[in-house]
Each structure stands twice: as structure tokens, then as C-alpha cells.
């Protein structure tokens, strides 16, 4: 049921959001010269996949988790994208392809070994990673790997259609601030 909802919402989101995606891509082109960001992430069952999103940091920023990156590396347009969560829109493509879900644990980098270990212990990596979830709406990010893995596990144990819609609604209405970055 969740996969059907994911596919349907991702397809309609991409179709109806195409004008917004085009405008944001054009602005991003002027902002960084490369508006789309691609990065290998840990997927379901530790299978790697390429996550796509709008670039919010300068092109030469090191490939590390957001909480390890410097706030100086975020562009002015990137701040807007992060604040409005519009940087996540291209991930609808990952959802459409079945690599992600709208709701699930945020996909981490392969160099985040502590988080991967904690998620493996709790069975979190058996689920599709998501754009949003319980941790994101409660401002729990990858800087606290044990708490994040525990929260992901808790979410997955009770995730049903009601919670699915609740997390999406909370995210769209502005609950949660996204991944922290160093000052």
C-alpha cells in the first residue's frame, strides 16, 4: 500500500511540480552553475543508490554529512531551499524509481559508519530510505547516530497509512528544520 502511495504521489508531484522544478533549476544554475546535486547514499539493505536533490552548498564543498559541513558553504539560494525544504523535490525521482519512499529513515553516506552500525542492529536498513520521517519532524539529525537509529526503528515499527500522511503533512507545514550545519 505504501509503495502505491509513494509511486502515485511522486508521479503527480513531478508532473505538477515541473514548472517549479524548472524555475528552481534555472535559479540554481545562476547560483552555483550546477543546480542538481547527486551523491551516493546507503539504500535499502545497504544497496548504494544515487540521491538527487537541489544543490544548496558551493560545488567544492567536501562530501560529508551536513552536520560536519561549514555553514559558510551554504549559498544564499541554498538557505532558501533548505528553509522551505524545496531542495528535496528532485528526490521524488528516487521515490518514483523505488529507491526511496516519501516516509522512511533519511539515507546516510557510506562513511557514516556509526549510524550504519546502529541502523543495522535495529533492522532500519531493511526499509527504503525516505525523504521525511519521525526523526526529521522532531529535529533529530545525523549528528546523534544512536538517537536517530532508535527513532527510525520506532517509526518503522508503527508506520501505517495514518503516520505516513502525518509525517508528510508535518514536513510540508514546516515542522522540523532539516539537517544542522556547523556555524
Compose a concise summary of this entry.
Belongs to the bacterial sugar transferase family. By secondary structure, this protein is mainly alpha-helical. It contains 8 helices and 4 strands, in the order ααββααβαβααα.
How would you characterize the overall build of this protein?
Residues 3-172 form the Bacterial sugar transferase domain. The chain has 183 residues and is mostly helical. It has one domain (2-172). 46% of the residues lie in helices and 11% in strands. It is built from eight helices and four strands; from the N terminus they run H-H-E-E-H-H-E-H-E-H-H-H. The strands form two sheets. It has a two-stranded antiparallel sheet. The chain has a two-stranded parallel sheet with strand order 3-4. Helix 5 (113-121) links the parallel strand 3 and strand 4. Helix 1 (2-16) packs across helix 2 (18-32). The chain is globular. It starts with a helix and ends in an 11-residue tail after the last helix.
Amino acid at each position: 500500500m505504501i509503495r502505491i502511495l509513494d509511486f502515485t504521489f511522486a508521479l503527480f508531484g513531478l508532473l505538477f511540480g515541473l514548472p517549479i522544478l524548472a524555475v528552481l533549476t534555472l535559479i540554481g544554475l545562476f547560483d552555483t552553475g550546477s543546480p542538481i546535486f547527486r551523491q551516493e547514499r546507503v539504500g535499502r539493505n545497504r544497496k548504494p543508490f544515487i540521491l538527487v536533490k537541489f544543490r544548496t552548498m558551493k560545488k567544492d564543498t567536501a562530501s560529508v554529512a551536513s552536520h560536519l559541513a561549514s555553514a559558510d558553504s551554504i549559498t544564499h539560494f541554498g538557505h532558501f531551499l533548505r528553509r522551505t525544504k524545496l531542495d528535496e523535490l528532485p528526490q521524488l525521482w528516487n521515490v518514483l524509481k523505488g529507491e526511496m519512499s516519501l516516509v522512511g529513515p533519511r539515507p546516510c553516506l557510506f562513511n557514516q559508519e556509526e549510524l550504519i552500525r546502529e541502523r543495522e542492529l535495529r533492522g532500519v536498513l531493511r526499509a527504503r530510505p525516505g525523504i521525511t520521517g519521525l526523526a526529521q519532524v522532531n529535529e533529530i539529525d545525523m549528528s546523534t547516530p544512536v538517537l536517530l537509529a532508535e527513532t527510525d526503528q520506532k517509526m518503522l515499527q508503527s508506520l501505517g497509512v495514518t503516520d505516513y500522511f502525518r509525517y508528510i503533512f508535518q514536513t510540508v507545514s514546516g515542522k522540523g528544520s532539516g539537517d544542522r550545519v556547523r556555524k
